[in-house]
Each structure stands twice: as structure tokens, then as C-alpha cells.
Prior knowledge:
Layout: H1 2-11, H2 14-38, H3 44-75, H4 81-105, H5 110-131, H6 142-146
Amino acid sequence: MYVLLNYVTKKFLDQTILLFGFIILSTACLIGTMALLFCKPGSEIYLSFFLLFVIMDVFSAPLIVVTSTSLFIQETKDGEQGVGQGIQRAVVSIAAILGPLYAGALLRTLWIMLLSLLIGAVIAIILIGMVYRSFRPKTTDESLSLIPLVNQNNS
């Protein structure tokens, strides 16, 4: 998926990929919630819905993780990159600790866990949609962001 994402990011804007990732995640959560509510555990249709949910969830994760980090770096001012990335990593680390604890507490009521994930993903889609056009465009040449231009008039 990450190799495919390398080529996709050259064709589409990061915010488009991020929005697409959250749409896939929302669809996966909706499928998972519906499968838990309406299918009998142990049936073949339940297994099919579960596998579809897992595939879509795993497919959406790299889209969301990579493009959200990329957009965060693009939108943060150069002087604030260190602090911004530190805060971002702290939030991600806290989520990595609290997520399994939250999910583990809801093992008997999986539909609540999936429904809360669906609500979070839908909120993310709405927020991304609200700020979609305000994202700064990506520089066309990656070397411009790495190597500062030297004033050629001062010979």
C-alpha cells in the first residue's frame, strides 16, 4: 500500500487522498456496524462482511496516516516545525495507548466501538470538507523546500 501511495501522491493532492481515506474508513465502519447488528455470528455472510471491513480499514490507514502528516508539515510554519511535530507525535502516541484500552473495554459491545469510530470518521470528513480549499498548495519542486535559494544578484 505504501508503494502504491508513493505513486498516488504524485497524481492527486494530499487533501484529496486524505478525504478519500476517511471516506473508505467511514464505509468500512458502516459495514462493520451493520454486520454486527444484522448478521448472525458464525455465518458465511458475517465472515464476508468482517473480511471486507478489515480490508477496507487496513487500506485506509496508510492513506490517512501519510497524508495527514504531510499536510500537517506543509501547513506548519518553518519556525514551528519542531514544536508542531512534537505535539503531533505526542497525540499519536497517546492515541496508540488509549485506543486499545478503549477497544478492549468494549469487547462485549463491539457495535458501540465501531459506531464511535464511524462518528469520528464522519466528523473528520466534515471538518476536512470545511477547510479543503484553504490548504496551501504543495511546492512543485521538492528541492526548493530543502535547499534555500541564493540571491544571484549579489555576485
